[in-house]
Amino acid sequence: MRVLVLGSAAGGGFPQWNAASEACMRARSGDPAARPASQCSIAVTADGERWLLVNASPDLRQQIEANPQLHPRIPPRSSPISAVVLTNADVDAVAGLLHLREGTPFVLYAGERILAVLDRNPVFEVLDRRIVPRRTLPMDAWFAPEDVDGRPLGLQVRGFPVPGKPPLWLEGEIGEDLVTDAEAGDVLGLEIVCGDRRLVWLANCARMTPSLRERICGCDLLFLDGTLWRDDEMIRAGVGTKTGRRMGHMPMSGPDGAMAAVGDLPVGRKLFIHINNTNPALLADSPERAELERRGFEVATDGLEIVL
Ligand code: MLT
Ligand code: MN
Predict the structure, then answer these.
(1) Hey, whose CA ends up nearest to atom 3 of ligand 1?
(2) Ligand 1 neighbours by CB, cut-off 6 Å
């Protein structure tokens, strides 16, 4: 299995368009310790030819151009992207679908609740359903993703609900009091298996649970929610009023943060992804990055390819 990090940043990317923070200024000035990062997504392949995208970020067009593995090879039009699986319906996970219009087929997989969100947004009808079939991801059951010709991609995938909340842009409709971090299927995690190798995707996760720890245990590669270093980071930076948990993200640090929650588990590589532009761990020369690496974690970077 080959895994390609297309984007490692959270919604907004790094630098974010309206952020005049020191970190974003450093990223804009070309500081090598503040590497720009696009919005969160990975691509996975078993055969090196046909790729499964995990989420479709608003930066997908640039991500395709930046990674020759995803360039079209067969004229006049084609794509190595054979399927896309969505693990939430936030803007940073679904807006890239709009880049994939123009009539090249692929299969779109998502959980029931996520598909329902797409179904009620007519803009996604730019993906003609006769060309881009939408398939419901079974919950907590293994399935073999296929290309549109019905040929299995050679991967086994199992989606499962993760503590999280409905998309930010639906909160107004749902009502502030009713937005919870329930395991209702608004946010999914994934296990992806190829041969004897297993990847676990937990890029959005409001809290760790015993059953999530069990899933993580023994995997070869873990992608973990790295949105914030501290729960109150955005409040302290003066750029938001919500804690990380209220936004559906557990912090990296602290006694109930992600590092403490999974640090003891046997895992091949532990990579943080979906990193917000306020998170000091984005900066290669920060004490937070040093601490994270000392504890056996890594920060995913755009273009990183991992062969498992
Ligand atoms: C999140 O992960 O919290 C969302 O992507 C936020 C957003 O949509 O801006
Ligand atoms: Mn996000």
Answers:
(1) 247
(2) 10-11, 90-92, 168, 204, 247-248
pLDDT at 91: 98
Torsion of CA 289, 236, 162, 175, to 10 degrees: -160
Task: State the distance from the centre of ligand 1 to the C-alpha of 55, rounded, in angstroms.
Answer: 13
- Distance, CA 92 to ligand 2 centroid (Å)? 5
**Alpha-carbon separation of residue 292 from 46, 152, 187, 280, 295 (angstroms):** 30, 38, 25, 11, 5
Pick from 173, 212, 204: which is nearest to 186 by CA?
204
Q: Over 90: is that where the pLDDT of 176 sits?
A: no
Q: Where do we find the tokens 């190829």?
A: 194
Residues 277-302 have pLDDT tens digits of 999 999 999 999 999 999 999 999 99
Q: Model pTM?
A: 0.98
Which tokens in the block code for residue 99? 């880049």
> Whose alpha carbon is nearest atom 6 of ligand 1?
11
Strand blocks (E) in 70-164: 81-86, 107-110, 134-136, 142-143, 156-161
Which residue's CA is the nearest one to ligand 1's atom 5? 11
- Count Cβ atoms within 10 A of the Cβ of residue 260 and give its class: 0-12 exposed, 13-18 middle, 19 or more buried: middle
